[in-house]
Amino acid sequence: PGVQLPHDPQKKTIVVLGSGWGATSFLNTLDTTDYNVIVISPKNFFLFTPLLPSVAVGTLSPRSIIQSTRYVTRHKTRAVEVIEAEAQHVDVANKTVSFIDNSAIQGELSATTIPYDYLVYAVGAEVQTFGIPGVTEHACFMKELHDAEKMQRLFLDCLESAAFHGQSEEEIKRLLHIVVVGGGPTGVELSGELHDFLEEDLKSWYPELADKIKITLVEALPSVLPMFSKRLIEYTVSTFKESKIDILTQTMVKEVKDKSVKLALPDKTVIDMPCGMVIWAAGNRGRAITQDLMAQLPGAQTNKRGITIDEYMEMKGTNGSIFAVGDCTSSSHAPTAQVASQQGAYLARAFAQRVKRDDLEAKVTELERSVAMILHDDERKKTQDELEGAKRQLAKFKIRPFTYSHQGTLAYIGSDKAIADLPFLNGSFASGGFLTFYFWRSAYLSTLFSLRNRTLVATDWVRTKIFGRDVARE
Ligand code: FAD
Ligand code: NAD
What we know:
Blueprint (H helix, E strand, L loop, with lengths): L11 E6 L3 H9 L5 E7 L3 E3 L4 H5 L9 E3 H5 L6 E5 L1 E6 L4 E5 L10 E5 L2 E4 L4 E2 L7 H4 E3 L3 H18 L6 H7 L1 E5 L3 H21 L8 E5 L11 H13 L2 E4 L3 E5 L3 E5 L5 E5 L2 E4 L3 E2 L2 H8 L26 E3 L12 H37 L3 H20 L12 E6 L2 E8 L2 E7 H14 L3 H17 L7
Parallel strand pairs: 1-2, 1-9, 2-5, 9-20, 11-18, 12-13, 12-18, 13-14
Antiparallel strand pairs: 3-4, 6-7, 7-8, 10-19, 15-16, 16-17, 21-22, 22-23
Bound molecules: flavin-adenine dinucleotide and nicotinamide-adenine-dinucleotide.
């Protein structure tokens, strides 16, 4: 990394909350020469979410899709402080953040408050449960790394319990029934990965049980993957049919129990469907800290879906002190990694422009002072001309607004097939199948932030191809 510039009390301090897509992209792009930067996140790493379902079935190792936040910050011109802690409260009026270390091991100091000049708010969202009974207690989420690890453990536990000597047929059927709730891309990709695990590995590891494994995808809306084109939705539905993944649309999960899910069917009848485990992928909702932040600005922040920002990522009502990116915001864009990373990179470039604008403002103030003090006519005229030039430059100076460039939507649907809706020659190009699968793999490989992660993921794919997935339960 070389020698980094130290914290400079004369410079403005940017506090970044989060280490996900928005925050990491911001840190990657930011020139820290002119700012002190402090990053606060309960996770000291970045998680490459698109490959999380692959971790849940053991295609990839957990460590292959995470990258330490210090990996990014150690290359910066000025030393960046990385704090593993959870922000609990942002005080908008006093421009401070309070945070706590809630990890297993804590030092004498584990809670504090620091001031900021600018806050880059990128805490993402949490899993939406709609307050449905039993979800938090009995379902497994698919949002964080520990969710994927937990799902892998529970799924293998279902298999081992089904293999218990003398288990009844009915109980085996229940234990081997996996219900995925939510027909968005998370639920679909996870169902596809589970199917691959079954076909490619479980049939040889558990030959007596594999045929009894059943995957059901439950979706409240009339169709899965509403963000994809009709042709790709149909392609997914027919691939799932071949893969024997049942899709129940217009079916709402009303309760998750220990050994079953309560479903409201399209004809409004309510049934209890026995199952071994439930994976909950029913979308996002704002975090408590975000609701608390928005509640401080009741006039400007009224959108229940998240923080209202302008085209410069500025949180409305904060006078240019808080900028928000990613899933915590309610913009016209979908809450995706693609949007969060473009917003983060844009914001970092805008901060570089902000420094130039601040320098110009300082120059104008300085020249105005000089003009007032210079007595010699010629010299004053020269400085006056310089001042006019600087003022013209300042008047012309504009920070460009954010524009989103959609690169397309990709999803893996299992059986070495992927679907892609790509913006193509001003239209849309929809594609599905094996070629798209290799495109999906290469697109994600190139999107991974580091050579280390690319190498680990590529090696895992080769390892899985040769040796299969592991069924040892940690
Ligand atoms: P996140 O990436 O969630 O980051 C939030 C960060 O804030 C985390 O580091 C978190 O630890 C931190 N944090 C949380 N609470 C606090 C706190 N109190 N204080 C400080 N820090 C906090 N999108 C795509 O475009 N393509 C895909 O293929 C794709 N696949 C996905 C697959 C899965 C399984 C999932 C769950 C999502 C997927 N997404 C995909 C969506 C994408 O992951 C999100 O849109 C993206 O993560 C949003 O980025 P973010 O920075 O807003 O939030
Ligand atoms: P989502 O919001 O896209 O889908 C959740 C689905 O769950 C919805 O279709 C909803 O109708 C359904 N649902 C909610 N409650 C239900 C209930 N009680 N019973 C049955 N169904 C219910 O959520 P997601 O799939 O987690 O995706 C979140 C965001 O991340 C989206 O913006 C998505 O585009 C993005 N993402 C993208 C990719 C990709 O591009 N490959 C992959 C994963 C996630």
